[in-house]
Amino acid sequence: MIEPYKAAIDACTHRLSAMGYSKTFDSDYGVSFSNGRYTIGLSIERYYHPSISMSLVDDKGRTFELGLVLRIRAPRQYAEFVAKEKDIKLRYGLDDRATDKPTRALGIAAYAAVSIEHLCEFLNTLKNEPFTEREDFLQQYVQMERERMHKTFGLDFKF
User: Fold this and answer.
1) Long-range contacts for 45-49 (Cβ within 8 Å, ≥24 apart)?
2) Within a domain: residue 157?
């Protein structure tokens, strides 16, 4: 993974290892960790930063967008993450093309660190629980994904 995302991931690797996750893939724009039950995938865009996409793949091969999983499983933690992310973007002017490169680099590093830290916190609370097997979780997830796809693209989502 390229910097500054690599530094943020490296800072959490020990914690992930303590939770039973080991690195299974690493490239300039993506990395994944697995513990046998779940695989966590992180990827970034090549040209737009800050960007970080996180997914969770269960042991049946089903992929879940981690933001939606967090909204369902840990809504308070999700709200805190979104607030911190918005604060970092505002503080460092990350959505402003006129922001100078040094300030932007500091902001991207802060954004990456907060994102990875929240991932580690969530995985720690997850405790390898097989929540993707629960029908109530699946129904909530599908409904939220349908709403998001319809709102964003005018599409219906099939699961």
Assistant:
1) 49/108
2) no
